[in-house]
Serine hydrolase
Amino acid sequence: MARDDDRVHGTVAEGFEGVREAFAAVLGEERDAPEAQLVVHVDGRRVVDLWGGPGTAADTLTGLYSITKGAAHLVVALLVQDGVLDLDREVAAYWREFGAEGKGRLTLRELLAHRSGVVGVDGGFTTEELADDRLTAARLAAQRPFWEPGKAYGYHAFVIGALTGEVVRRVTGRSIQEIYEERIRAPYGLDFHLGLPESLEARYADVLPMLPTPEEAERLAANAAAPDSVKGIAFNQNATPPTDLVAFANTRAVRALGSTSAGGVGTARGVAGMYAAAISEVDGRAPLLKPETVTEFARVQYRGTDLVTGNEDVFGLGFEELSGRYPFLGPDAFGHSGATGSLGFADPDSGVAYAYTRRRFGFPSGFGAGPENHRLAEAAVRAAAVR
């Protein structure tokens, strides 16, 4: 049997050996190879670059699911910072058709906080529709909300990027994907794509399904959402056929179009590099976000229980609020998890930009990020504090 150290490849800077040890322990404890990457930047400098698993290298690309929402809403944060978008203006003022079915008073701030009530559509979406933000948005505009807009919140799993993206398109004439490419991905050379070019397909490695024990399979079946419940609609289980998450990311059309809710493709290097650029000086460039913009987007602005997931107070504006779940992070930490158990975030207090990506689905923990992120991120922040 391989030693833990034999499972881990890559490098760490002096003082970050504990992060490597934590990553080795995670790989050693997994029953099935998670095929994972872990990258950490501190103050814009890469200090951890690790990977492990027989089918994963440093530059292996895979489906990132809702980590994509972080890239999409970094674009929105930039446009708010530039004065192009106003958080307290009604969505329908930008996108007239959205005002149908009683949605006319919903503000952009409320939309970003997952409060629109349109978490899906009657009858569900086809994969073709979910892959294409414009098709998704067109159906959502006419959809009746599943709760009174602005009065509650629930995770808009497959649709939040299409909704905010249509606002961006109506104002700028360009898609989130185009603005992300021009202002964020290309200037920093990030291996994190909202729309994977055909030329990079050879580097894509399929997302792998969870391999649950019989007991875990029983628990999953017992907790499965009814197709026409709010949760079922949010995860497109009311479609015919219902969306299979593994197959979704492994569909070329999804990767090619880069749907901004769940269609991004990348590496941990790409995700960590994006969050480093958001809060730190990188290659002589000033941070993308001003501190006041970070605070605005990172902090929870509405209190309550998520009607889709049952979680409490998870969202800031477009990003997940993280300091409540990870007490070693500062109050302005912001980021987003992905369905396989992955996580990317920036923590301005410590200067840490963190990305953990895994190809194989882990057993759900009630929050998108796998439980291993707690010890991996804590090890990184602890090492950063004594550097």
The chain has 16 helices and ten strands. Strands lie at 8-12, 36-42, 45-52, 62-65, 192-193, 264-266, 320-321, 334-337, 343-347, 352-358. The first strand starts at residue 8 and ends at 12.
